[in-house]
Each structure stands twice: as C-alpha cells, then as structure tokens.
Design goal:
7-stranded mixed beta sheet, alpha/beta
C-alpha cells in the first residue's frame, strides 16, 4: 500500500515534536536560522497582511507554534488559534504559546465556523500536502473561515517552476542533516497558477511575492519559494 506524502511527514513531525530544550522554530524545522533571523523573516513575510492587535488569527499547520509566538512578540493582543495534524508537536505549542490549539487536518477546517477569523495563515506547510487537490481544498477551507474583508496568507510555497533548482540546492544544503525517517520525504511543488485560478473562482484579490523579495539572504529556500496573499471582498458597496 502506498503511503501518502502527508502521512509520511506527519510521522516525522510526531518524532520531531518529542524534542525538548530547543527553540520552537528549530522544532518546526528551521534549525539553520537563529532566533533573530526567524523573527525577522516572520516580520517580513507578514508585513503585507497589515496585522493589528486584537485580531483573531488562525494558523493552519502551526507545528510547535513558533510562527505565532513570533507574531505575539510584536502584537501581544492577537487572539491566536493553531491547528496541526501532529499531536506531539501540538503539545509543544500548547505548553509555550498563549492561544487555543486544535488537532486536525488543514484540508478540513469544519471545527471552525464561516468567517471566524480576521486572518488565516499557513507558513511553510503546503509542500507537505499530498497533492495539488489537497492544496486547493486547504485554500478553500482557509478562505471559508476568514471573514469578509479579511486576508489569507499562504507562505513559503515551493514553486513548481523552480523544482529542479530546488532539488539541486537542497542536495547541497541538507547533505549533512540527520534524517528522522528512511522514507521518501519529497515535497509538493505547487504552480502559482493554482492560486490564481482559485482566486478567480472565489472572487478574491491576490498578490504573489517571490520569497527572495523579502531580503532573506540567510534562508536558502527563499530562492525557490513564494508567498500568496488573498483578500476577501468586504461585500460593502461604494
């Protein structure tokens, strides 16, 4: 029986979630970045969102909560909610981040109501999904739970157009990494056109920004990844 990419990665994150006494962003896989670099990157990629204190924000694939923890340093009054498919790594988020955390799959957000959040985000997670179909389901769900006038941010997406370059680069940058699993841990590369098609179908505003544009010289993956910003119409006329 073929095991899906998503399931393989879930098992890996279950193992990573058992780490202790390491920074949250290292638990979440960004172990080549120091704390200052991590906070800088989070600040850069979320600037287009125009976050405000007091807003309700959902992170899909929140992992150990490193992204939300970084946001809370700048916006301490954010009302944060996180969802992840790995129970062990989610436990780390519950221990370390002030917010509400749920176990679940980002392609099915039925535990949340329509328009529940001002901002819905997912950072560096779409490459763990099993297919473009799963990616499309996740986008539709993220849009559904975001209120009219709100925004959806999907960051650090591996670009299908840059797949060969990415594979060559990762072979160099990850050659000394200790593997958690012997399984084939490949990534999903998503064409930018998928997001443009969904934006048209769902009548959303869209901006797609290459990750390199955020001035992240310390983050090699920026060379082949991009971020997507979707805006829901407020429904107001005039």
């Amino acid at each position: 029986m073929t095991v899906s990419r998503s399931k393989i990665w879930q098992e890996i994150w279950d193992k990573k979630g058992q780490k202790a006494d390491v920074p949250l962003h290292h638990v979440d896989g960004f172990d080549l970045l120091d704390a200052e670099q991590w906070d800088y990157m989070v600040g850069q990629v979320t600037r287009p969102l125009g976050l405000k204190d007091g807003e309700k924000i959902l992170e899909c694939g929140c992992g150990a909560g490193a992204f939300l923890a970084s946001l809370l340093k700048k916006f301490p009054e954010l009302k944060v909610t996180g969802l992840d498919y790995s129970q062990p790594i989610l436990a780390a988020a519950k221990r370390n981040v002030k917010g509400d955390f749920y176990h679940g799959d980002m392609t099915d957000l039925s535990i949340f109501s329509d328009g529940q959040f001002e901002k819905t985000i997912s950072y560096s997670t779409f490459h763990y999904l099993s297919s473009e179909g799963a990616a499309a389901r996740a986008v539709r769900e993220m849009v559904r739970v975001t209120r009219a006038g709100g925004s959806v941010f999907i960051g650090d997406v591996s670009d299908l157009a840059k797949r060969e370059m990415a594979l060559a680069l990762r072979k160099m940058t990850h050659q000394n990494h200790q593997r958690v699993s012997s399984a084939n841990t490949d990534h999903l590369f998503v064409p930018q056109e998928l997001f443009r098609q969904l934006a048209g179908e769902l009548k959303l505003g869209i901006d797609i920004i290459d990750q390199e544009s955020f001035d992240l010289p310390f983050y090699d993956n920026a060379k082949y990844r991009y971020s997507v910003y979707l805006r829901k119409n407020s429904g107001r006329k005039g």
